[in-house]
Design brief:
Length: 350
């Protein structure tokens, strides 16, 4: 019998700087209202998102000054390194595993670029072995909390007994732009925050939940829905206004296809644990998946407390779902650039 991959632990962390949504709205109004004709109309997004506060890599005053690649990536290295340290250490401690027992590290991030990669920078300090396998992944965006975890689970399944550490880190706030007088950039200032999460996986006994199945669906002709455009100043967000409509129209068939390949259906899932991309996206997912309006309650709590942190956000939801008690089968769902839908089913360990 082949050992199944188990989620042994999960830890999350955020930067120490907190921005209240009221503060973000006031600052954005001061910086954009006289330069962007439709700002008064778009300003309503600061209230409609349901976000109360966000954690960010730098104090609010930092974002009122212009910054280029060097400033942004220096901030990324500093803060992402600290969040990696905190989440990896926390997840390993909760799993009762020492750093030298880790065989592979999978790290996902789409909001910063650093070489050597984060896990290499911390290897000596944290005590990882010299023969550890490193898999840094860039470009999966908001979907990476699910698709990256799926990749980590496959690494664990290929070598029963091996310990795999999965780390998701995003500093979305470092992409806020004073020079981008566009609708997507204004929405980004109201929606995105920063955070990180780490999981420990191993094929064998014990754990919190079994990684039962994984899958992705890449939608054709959808590259322009979400992503980055990159220039001398840094990342600039690409975010189509039609995303919630696209999700409501197309996601159900994609998730049904992923589940069908695993011999499952929507009715076999007791609880969907979704990436909370925004209030409208959550409503679209509830409609698409045939859920009662408001049933993605933990998702709304998380986005209210942290905003959309991109890839780790779904793992913040999973942490709260674990604390509340997982049902027999859950499905993690996230969407990201590509445009892609990712899904993992989890079975509760008795």
């Amino acid at each position: 019998m082949i050992d199944t991959v188990k989620l042994l632990s999960l830890a999350v962390a955020t930067p120490d700087n907190i921005i209240l949504q009221s503060e973000a709205a006031e600052t954005a109004g001061r910086l954009f209202s006289e330069r962007f004709q439709d700002f008064k109309y778009l300003a309503r997004v600061f209230e409609s998102t349901g976000i109360r506060k966000r954690h960010v890599a730098r104090p609010l005053s930092w974002f009122e000054q212009p910054h280029g690649w060097q400033d942004r990536m220096a901030a990324y290295v500093e803060v992402a390194t600290e969040l990696f340290r905190r989440t990896a250490t926390g997840a390993l401690q909760r799993a009762g595993i020492e750093a030298h027992q880790v065989d592979c590290i999978v790290t996902v991030s789409s909001t910063g670029v650093v070489t050597p990669s984060l896990e290499a920078r911390l290897a000596g300090e944290l005590g990882f072995r010299c023969d550890i396998e490193r898999v840094p992944i860039f470009g999966l965006g908001c979907a990476a909390g699910v698709s990256g975890l799926a990749i980590a689970s496959k690494m664990a399944r290929s070598r029963p007994g091996a310990v795999v550490l999965f780390v998701s880190i995003e500093l979305c706030s470092l992409a806020f732009r004073l020079d981008e007088l566009t609708r997507p950039n204004i929405i980004a200032t109201a929606l995105f925050g920063d955070g990180a999460a780490a999981c420990v996986l191993r094929a064998g006994d014990g754990g919190i939940a079994e990684i039962e199945s994984t899958g992705e669906h890449l939608f054709p002709d959808s590259l322009g829905i979400m992503g980055w455009k990159i220039d001398d100043t840094g990342f600039g967000i690409v975010l189509e206004q039609s995303l919630p409509v696209f999700a409501e129209t197309h996601v159900r068939a994609a998730i049904e296809g992923i589940l069908d390949r695993a011999g499952l259906s929507l009715l076999d899932v007791d609880r969907f644990i979704c990436h909370p991309g925004g209030a409208r996206v959550l409503a679209a997912l509830e409609s698409a998946l045939g859920l009662e309006p408001g049933s993605l309650d933990i998702e709304r709590e998380v986005i209210g407390d942290y905003g959309n942190m991109s890839s780790p956000t779904v793992l913040f939801v999973l942490e709260r779902a674990i604390a509340a008690g997982l049902p027999e089968r859950s499905a993690l769902v996230a969407m990201g650039p590509g445009f892609t839908a990712s899904c993992i089913t989890l079975k509760r360990v008795a």
